[in-house]
Amino acid sequence: MSHAAPAKSNEALWEMDRAHSLHPWTNFGPFEEKGALVITRGEGCHLWDADGRRYLDAVGGLWCTNIGLGRREMADAIADQAMKLAFSNTFVDMTNDPAARLAARLAELAPGDLNRVHFTTGGSTAVDTAVRMVSFYHHARGNPEKTGIVARENSYHGSTYLCQSVGKRNGDRVEEFRYKQDGIWHLTCPNPYRRPEGMDEAAFCDWLIAEFEALIARVGPEQIGGFIAEPVQASGGIIVPPEGYLRRMWEVCRKHDILFIADEVVTGFGRLGHWFASLDEFGVLPDIVTCAKGLTSGYQPLGAVVFSDRIWAEMAEGGSRWFTSGYTYSGHPVACAAGLKNIEIIEREGLLAQAARVGACFQERLKRLESLALVGQVRGRGLMLCVENVADKTSKRLLPDAVGESKRISDACEEMGLMVRPIGHLNVMSPPLVITEGQVDFIAETLEKAIRRVTDDLVREGWKIGG
């Protein structure tokens, strides 16, 4: 983030970080020049930096601070569990009180027969485990070659070697890293805004389904074990797929004995107004759901793979196999205690309904920004929205990447006390579920001022905006 030079109170922290930290997704040149914004406090939807400046965090941390920051009862639950039992491993045949209770609670909240839970350390490790579970399941059924995974272009599924190979978001694939290619296939991103010219949304959906069927026919269903999809593609651009798309993709999976993995790391625990979005929002009963982020609202690192009784039965058949996957901190008692308290708060305070209600207001309020010359589309679902910036509304032509208009907009917002996330040509928002309609107005008004300011700057620089 761009920010003013640190004050004396902040300078030591800023310099320690700049001298020693490698941040996720570090952009080396800007980081070495400007360092990082040091955050020291959070309460509700707000953050304070080390110099005391306050920001409304419309990013929600990283899609995760669902119940808001600074909750005393969460801190107490974490502290109480740390005193009672700070750690106990869950390998093979051990568990602990919070892990057992949270597994049962997730089974209650998950749809259908998704009654089995494998705890991980976060979303990446949940997806990594789910992808490998596909191979284990099909091998147990006598289909050892049925290990391939189908994903979509512009998807994001985590940052382990396997997860980044499965995901394929613009900008994530750098030449310095290598990626697994065999046994992974990618389909067209189901983005209605970028569908082929002259094709309506229903025809686009038909085309996407036909593409999946053609891939299965070409590769062979005996080679493809799983399909993974975010119900709404998050970091890939807040892509809400065409009506009926996910349900029809699920039906194709059922026909060809392909496991459907719903990556709900972002959409789970209220972001779309449901505990899980797959069934309630899109009519899909997945075989496996991955979750993290809102599971603890960011108070502790925790992820989970929630999967069906049918998968368990096949893997466990005969009783002789070992599921050799897991992590030192799987089922960590303090993290699981945080998960239990987080679910209690969401339920007690009616935050699913609030997310749906305020989310509708948020969508309506931001949609007005489409009247601005630089804004091509506002899109999203629930409390998960973005603004796509374009040079020309008619052709949907983007500005060159080097212009960095979305970063300029986020910098301008930051100066006015608002945090939004620039991703490519997008400004992305996923605020806590506790956000109010008044705070939504502040976000929309501030974002509009920032977009107008940046548009004026671009025009003065000679860029043609509008159309």
Strand order of the largest sheet: 4-10-9-8-7-5-6
User: How do the SSEs run, as a string of H and E?
Assistant: HHEEEHHHEHEHEHEHEHEEHHHEEHEEEH
Task: Tell me the count of domains.
Answer: 2
The CATH superfamily of the largest domain appears as Type I PLP-dependent aspartate aminotransferase-like (Major domain)
Alpha-beta classification: alpha/beta
- Main sheet overview: 7 strands, mixed
The global form is: globular
CATH architectural type of the largest domain: 3-Layer(aba) Sandwich
Rounded radius of gyration (Å) = 22 Å
List the total number of helices.
Answer: 15
Strand content: 5-15%
CATH fold name of the largest domain: Aspartate Aminotransferase, domain 2
Helix content range: 25-40%
Explain this structure.
With 467 residues, the protein is an alpha/beta fold. It folds into 2 domains: 38-67 and 351-460, Aspartate Aminotransferase, domain 1, CATH 3.90.1150.10; 72-348, 3-Layer(aba) Sandwich (Aspartate Aminotransferase, domain 2). It contains 15 helices and 15 strands. The strands form 3 sheets. It has a 7-stranded mixed β-sheet with strand order 4-10-9-8-7-5-6, sandwiched between helices. Helix 10 (277-282) links the parallel strand 8 (259-263) and strand 9 (288-291). Helix 14 (405-415) crosses helix 15. It is globular. The two termini are 30 Å apart. The mean pLDDT is 96.
